[in-house]
What does this fold into?
Amino acid sequence: MAITRGFKLSWVRSHRWNTGITTIVDETLEQQTDVYFEAGYHKSLVPMEDAEFSRLTQRTRHGRFSEPWFDEV
It folds into this structure.
């Protein structure tokens, strides 16, 4: 194992490095022109353009989970 930028890395079967942090991205975020992250403080936001966000999350799992999944009565 190696330590890089504060993350403990492990080699996985697909021959890619894995930080051990499971990430799931909602597909609706990919439709946004800008995405904002909290910077650890509730009043600070870090902007990220869509192309940069796509590159950052290209190896993560994607799904649709922020939409209602049941019919309203």
